[in-house]
Amino acid sequence: MYAFTLERPDSVADAARLVAAGAKPLAGGQTLLASMKLRLSAPEQLVDLSGIKELTGITKNGNAITIGAMSRHLDVANNADVKAAYPALADLASRIGDRQVRAMGTIGGSVANNDPAACYPSAVLASGATIVTSRREIAADDFFLGLFTTALEDGELITAIRFPIPKRAVYEKLRQKASNFPLVGVFLAQYDSGVRVAVTGAGNGVFRHAGLEDALNKSFTAAAAAAVKIDASDLNSDLHASAAYRANLISVLTQRAVTKALG
Fold first, then answer.
1. Residue 200: domain span
2. What CATH number corresponds to the domain at position 45?
3. pLDDT of the chain along its 263 residues, tens only?
4. Residues 157, 144 contacting (CB under 8 angstroms)
5. From CA 241, how far away is CA 236, in angstroms rounded?
6. What are the Cα distances from residue 220, in Å, to 226, 229, 250?
7. Which residues belong to any copy of the FAD-binding PCMH-type domain (predicted)?
C-alpha cells in the first residue's frame, strides 16, 4: 500500500466535510482495501465511518424498515425485525460472501460501490427502496447509473436505506464459487402496486427486467416467468459464463423465486 492518513470522525457532518475535501470514505473496506493492496487505488486520506453512531441501527416504522449505512451484513441477517418483516432481505444478507465479509462488509458500502455483481443493489432496486444521504433522499430507480456508478455527488454519503416491506419477496442466486459473488442473482418483490424484479451479476450493473415484471403482474406463476424470452444481447459473457447461459439463469432463478414465494 501507499502511505495515507486515517481520520475517524464521530459525525456525518465532519465525515462529509472531509470527503468533500477529497478524502476517501471507508465503510467495510471489502473493496477499497483490496484495491489499495493491489495499488489500483491510492487515496492519500481515508475517512473511517465506523465511529459514527448515527450511521448504525435498524428500525421498523410502520410498513418500512430503515437500515443504517454502517450496519454490517451480519447485523441485517440476524436482526429480529428484518427476519420477521422482510425475511428475503435477511436471507440475502446471510449469504453474502463468506463469514469474514459478512462480519465487516456494510450495506452502505455495498450500495455506494455498486459492484455489478453485488447482492444488495438487487434488493434495493427490487424493493423500490429509498437511499437516504447526507443531503437528500434518492429513489432506487434513480440511484444506480451503471458500472460502479451511482447518483451520489462528491462529498455525499449514504446515511441509511429505507425499505418498504413487500407482501412477499425472494432472492435467488447462483454463486460463483471462486469469488462468492452471484454469477446471476434475481430479487423478486411483490407489492400492492405490482411485482418488481431486479437482476444482478448478469450485466454492467443491476437492472429491472420489464418483461418479467409485466408477465408476473398478469399471472404470478412460474409458468408465466418461463414464457418470457430473456434477451442475451446486453448481458455479460466471460470465462465464468456466456451471455446465453446468464439469460437462461435469469429465467430459471425467477421461476424458482416465484415458486418459493408461492410456498
1. 168-261
2. 3.30.43.10
3. 678 999 999 999 999 999 999 999 999 988 888 888 888 888 899 999 999 999 999 999 999 999 999 999 999 999 999 999 999 999 999 999 989 999 999 999 999 999 999 999 999 999 999 999 999 999 999 999 999 999 999 899 999 999 999 999 999 999 988 778 899 999 999 999 999 999 999 999 999 999 999 999 999 999 999 999 999 999 999 989 999 999 999 999 999 999 999 99
4. no
5. 8
6. 11, 16, 16
7. 1-168
**DSSP track, 71-89:** -BHHHHHH-HHHHHH-HHH
- CATH number, domain with residue 192: 3.30.390.50
Residue 203 grid coordinates: 450485466
Contact residues for 243 (Cβ-Cβ < 8 A; gap 6+): 232, 233, 235, 236, 237
Q: Do the Cβ atoms of 254 and 261 come closer than 8 Å?
A: no
DSSP state of 181: S
Establish if 239 belongs to a structural domain: yes
Q: Confirm whether 214 is domain-assigned.
A: yes
Cell 427476519 sits on residue: 83
- 8-state DSSP, 92: H
How many folded domains does the chain comprise? 2
Residue 89 inside a domain? The answer is no
> Where do we find the cell 437516504?
132
Query: Between vectors from CA 83 to CA 182 and to CA 253, what angle results, nearest 5°?
Result: 30
| 235 within 8 A of 229, measured Cβ to Cβ | no
Strands 45-48 and 144-146, bridge-based pairing: unpaired
- How many contiguous H segments (helices) and E segments (strands) does the chain have? 12, 14
Residue 199 lies in a domain: yes
Q: Which residues partner with 133 through β-bridges?
A: 158
Q: Which three cell numbers stand for residue 2?
A: 501507499
